[in-house]
Write a sequence for this structure.
């Protein structure tokens, strides 16, 4: 269509360049948006050593790493003539195949080349070959209970591990484990998603299809409440909860989430219900159905898409929430901590342990991402209904 | 296990109570004013006057208690001071005076203004760009979805993700944060980005922009698709180039939607808490109002100043609240 207006020459070329520019820029933008998350995901499958020695983007490649290994213990020494000898293989326990350099002191881990001979502190010498075979010799017997510590620098092939996930989820000895927090988060979000829906649905129906004075005003109030910052509610409600004996706990956080979620729920559902065909409702009324019957048998099933939209919103919001949980749920014992709160705590206490942080974060991100990818249709629909007017 | 049971019981009790309330209250109305018999007409009218309020009552009660009442209570608390040993004492505007004497408060105000200027503009701008670019290509939907994905990630999760991007190692070690790796590759020196005053605000804002752009994209893309074809075809016939079509034909037609996206993100920005709390906790001059308030409430235990700062947030939100309500009323008519 547009080609004919670019003049007689170079039309096709110009268009092609533009198309390529579009593809390229979109590609670049997508890359920019996805790569940070990818970095964390990859890191969660790497060991602490790998993370701290190379950037996550180098995970698919072999990397030079310094590994700490031990020779066999002195109990394995044999006597050859007047020499005491320990022999063995250093690379057996590692993934590496070739040694680039080695050392016996943590202050100079690459002091020797393969084939060099070094003094051992307790007396005697050691030599390490490129293939990892070593030989220790001494004129006196080797003593002590453990083998000699050796640092080897070697190319280690890429390796991903599930160990971090096992440690963070299934290791009972791990005080930082996420399994308790995971179930706590689940305990918070499911009731906090289900309960507001029903309450909101009835109200939305009344606001959409029942005639009564003050209806328009009520809708306006709900639109206003939609943007009231929940920061305002923190102290008064905490005071209220403490005053009436709910205290800090699940009940409090469920009620708070219900209250905070209602404006959006009513707004979304009312807009959707108001758009349902008038005939259906009028006919049912003429046929003598009560409002309750109309609501339960007709409106509720027809409103499924809007109900699903809100449910997804509320689930994501309660699952990802930190502030409400910190104020209304988590008490001094920390037994009821949720994942977001625990991750923040880990950022403070284990800030450098990326294998722990990355895994913890991904455990908490996984469920929302699954919901996002499988229910995207409803999420987008809800967003559009909630804001475009 | 006990916990799962408790949650399940709550759902059942909650749902049961809701259904029971709605069902029984409606039944009651039908029994008191039966829609038949001698007074059928009058009874139906009466029942119809009452029934909407039966449907509305639980929602209105919860809204009033959890959102309406706190607004006034916070206002009241901001004018009081807690007396040691219990009770409150009227202090007028002293909390506000105390707050405005604090450097940290003004730092939070300044930073919030910066956030307000940068984040909505950048998110909406990127959103518009992505929406337009993905409109014409075949894999546009997938691209949109991937850019939309951070929307599902919690602010805390995003904070971890970006802390890894900003990670800094001593100069003689290999950098594991992408930003510093890039800087070093280009010949620069690694920086601890989150501790550089003033500029660190922008590194925090980037996280929210990254999250909100997808939201802007989805909505603006729908708006772009809603533009009548004829207007664009007419422009093409008149010889407009793609840039003119975008800026002079398309953007003016979705101006209303752009405004809605802008204000929605503005509200999010005013309430931003988790990102700052998790990444810097307001250190290195990155304080924002919501985190300042949290600090006052739960660390300093100063309910007076905490409430006063909550009221400041409310006042900042108020213009948008009024604008939204007026739009909604216009639409109802």
């Amino acid at each position: 269509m547009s080609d004919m207006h670019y003049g007689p020459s170079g039309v096709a070329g110009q268009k092609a360049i533009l198309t390529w520019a579009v593809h390229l820029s979109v590609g670049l933008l997508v890359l920019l948006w996805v790569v940070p998350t990818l970095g964390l995901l990859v890191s969660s499958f790497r060991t602490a050593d790998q993370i701290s020695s190379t950037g996550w983007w180098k995970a698919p490649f072999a990397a030079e790493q310094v590994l700490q290994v031990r020779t066999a213990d002195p109990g394995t020494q044999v006597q050859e003539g007047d020499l005491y000898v320990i022999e063995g293989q250093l690379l057996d326990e590692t993934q590496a195949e070739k040694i680039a350099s080695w050392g016996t002191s943590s202050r100079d881990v690459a002091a020797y080349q393969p084939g060099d001979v070094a003094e051992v502190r307790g007396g005697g010498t050691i030599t390490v070959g490129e293939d990892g075979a070593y030989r220790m010799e001494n004129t006196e017997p080797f003593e002590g209970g453990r083998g000699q510590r050796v640092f080897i620098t070697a190319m280690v092939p890429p390796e991903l591990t599930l160990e971090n996930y096992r440690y963070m989820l299934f290791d009972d000895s791990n005080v930082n484990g996420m399994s308790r927090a995971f179930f706590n988060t689940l305990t918070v979000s499911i009731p906090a998603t289900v309960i507001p829906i029903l309450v909101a649905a009835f109200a939305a129906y009344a606001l959409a299809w029942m005639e009564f004075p003050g209806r328009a005003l009520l809708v306006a109030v709900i639109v206003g409440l939609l943007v009231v910052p929940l920061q305002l509610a923190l102290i008064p409600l905490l005071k209220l909860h403490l005053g009436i004996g709910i205290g800090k706990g699940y009940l409090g956080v469920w009620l708070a989430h219900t209250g905070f979620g209602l404006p959006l729920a009513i707004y979304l559902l009312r807009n959707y219900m108001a758009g349902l065909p008038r005939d259906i409702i009028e006919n049912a009324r003429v046929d003598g159905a009560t409002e309750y019957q109309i609501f339960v048998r007709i409106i509720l099933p027809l409103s499924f898409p809007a109900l699903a939209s809100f449910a997804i919103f509320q689930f994501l919001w309660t699952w990802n929430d930190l502030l409400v949980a910190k104020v209304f749920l988590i008490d001094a014992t920390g037994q009821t901590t949720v994942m977001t709160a625990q991750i923040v705590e880990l950022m403070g206490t284990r800030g450098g342990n990326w294998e722990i942080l990355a895994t913890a974060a991904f455990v908490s991100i996984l469920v929302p991402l699954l919901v996002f990818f499988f229910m995207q249709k409803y999420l987008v629909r809800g967003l559009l209904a909630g804001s475009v007017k | 296990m006990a916990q799962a049971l408790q949650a399940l019981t709550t759902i059942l009790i909650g749902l049961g109570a809701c259904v029971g309330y709605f069902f029984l209250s409606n039944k009651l109305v039908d029994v008191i004013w039966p829609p038949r018999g001698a007074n059928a007409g009058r009874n139906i009218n009466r029942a119809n006057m009452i029934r909407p309020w039966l449907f509305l009552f639980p929602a209105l009660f919860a809204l009033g208690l959890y959102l309406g009442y706190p607004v006034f209570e916070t206002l009241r608390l901001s004018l009081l001071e807690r007396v040691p040993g219990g009770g409150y004492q009227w202090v007028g505007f002293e909390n506000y005076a105390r707050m405005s004497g604090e450097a940290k408060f003004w730092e939070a105000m300044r930073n919030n203004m910066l956030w307000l200027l940068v984040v909505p503009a950048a998110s909406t701008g990127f959103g518009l760009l992505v929406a337009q670019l993905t409109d014409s290509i075949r894999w546009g939907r997938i691209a949109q979805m991937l850019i939309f994905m951070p929307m599902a990630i919690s602010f805390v999760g995003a904070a971890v993700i970006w802390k890894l991007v900003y990670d800094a190692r001593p100069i003689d070690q290999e950098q594991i944060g992408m930003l510093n790796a890039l800087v070093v590759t280009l010949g620069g020196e690694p920086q601890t980005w989150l501790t550089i005053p003033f500029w660190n605000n922008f590194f925090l804002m980037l996280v929210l922009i990254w999250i909100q752009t997808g939201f802007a994209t989805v909505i603006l893309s729908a708006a772009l698709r809603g533009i009548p074809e004829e207007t664009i075809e007419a422009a093409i016939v008149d010889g407009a180039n793609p840039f003119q079509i975008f800026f002079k034909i398309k953007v003016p037609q979705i101006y209303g939607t752009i405004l809605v996206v802008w204000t929605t993100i503005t509200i999010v920005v005013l309430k931003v808490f988790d990102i700052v709390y998790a990444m810097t906790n307001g250190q290195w001059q990155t304080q924002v109002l919501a985190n300042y308030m949290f600090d006052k409430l739960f660390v300093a235990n100063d309910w007076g100043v905490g409430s006063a700062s909550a009221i400041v947030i409310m006042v900042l939100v108020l213009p948008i609240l009024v604008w939204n309500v007026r739009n909604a009323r216009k639409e109802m008519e």
